[in-house]
């Protein structure tokens, strides 16, 4: 359902998706647009929250299993360690340090949509791990896949942080299938999967009392305001999280507290919100073994090893073709 008949002057992907998402019913926006400089910082703050257990679990898995992971990755000689959605690389540095200490021959290729995050990562690697060869690449996941295809060395691909959970199952299969098509017999893929667990633990992770996750979610509206000349009043939207323990899907919404009209000047768009109307902004899928096996089968990958955190809250799985 469209709120206006005025033809929009939409050109960028961001403009197109904001226009189509806010003129659809029910309304939706893609979580990938939460991340700008402020969104990156808010996500780093989320990762530092004790209730956002995912980061500590993955950190623990990599720390506890770094020797086994090193043996697994370096078994067939030199390789490119390609990280999709590298962010601040904090967890990956456990492996980088271990590889560096063991004098493993590899090149680190962090890939991220955020130039800002990549620059910070590159600078920190120069100081903390000067002997590691870092070749950053800025782009979306799909541009990243093209970049991966141009590289000749054996590939070890990292997709950490349960980033796969921000894709719906069909998109996740499509993405994993694309990775599978780029992999050669000796290549490996290490992915993080947040596990189904006590639903309250999940709700607490995505609905902190300090309001950091709320600010993160609302940053998508802040971006529309600053980049598309919008006039969203962030105070008039509520961050709301739901979790379905049957499907394992956590969903984030922004809920309009009042009936209101928002103007997005650069799209020549007027958007009307009824009181309590929603914008769906993010999914954070949680997994069990059955879903992971299904994803692997659908995308033509073989699960070779799985490492899990002590609490069984989180898994890192290694796949080959
Ligand atoms: C990046 N991604 C895996 C995070 C997640 O858990 O879905 C983003 C996030 N959203 C709210 N908190 C964290």
What is the CA-CA span between the terminal residues? Answer: 43 Å
Which hetero ligands occur in this complex? N,N-dimethyl-L-histidine
Q: What coarse outline follows from CA principal-axis ratios?
A: globular
**Number of DSSP helices?**
11
Secondary structure: number of strands: 14
Run of helices and strands: HEHHHEHEHEEHEHEHHEEEEEHEE
- Approximately what portion of the residues adopt beta-strand conformation? 15-25%
| Rg (C-alpha, Å) | 20 Å
**Main structural class:** alpha/beta
Q: Could you give a short account of the major beta sheet? A: 8 strands, mixed
Percent helix, as a range, is: 25-40%
Low-confidence stretches: none
Average predicted confidence as pLDDT = 94
Keywords: Methyltransferase, Transferase
Protein name: Dimethylhistidine N-methyltransferase
Pfam families: Methyltransf_33
InterPro entries: EgtD, EgtD_Methyltrsf_superfamily, MeTrfase_dom, MeTrfase_EgtD-like, SAM-dependent_MTases_sf
Write the layout of secondary structure elements.
Blueprint: H1 13-22, E1 27-28, H2 37-47, H3 53-64, H4 66-74, E2 79-84, H5 92-101, E3 106-112, H6 115-128, E4 133-134, E5 137-138, H7 141-150, E6 155-159, H8 169-182, E7 188-194, H9 199-205, H10 212-228, E8 237-244, E9 249-256, E10 260-264, E11 269-273, E12 278-285, H11 289-298, E13 302-308, E14 314-320
Parallel strand pairs: 1-12, 2-3, 2-6, 3-4, 3-5, 6-7
Antiparallel strand pairs: 7-14, 8-9, 9-12, 10-11, 13-14
Helix pairs in contact: 2-10, 4-5
The chain binds N,N-dimethyl-L-histidine.
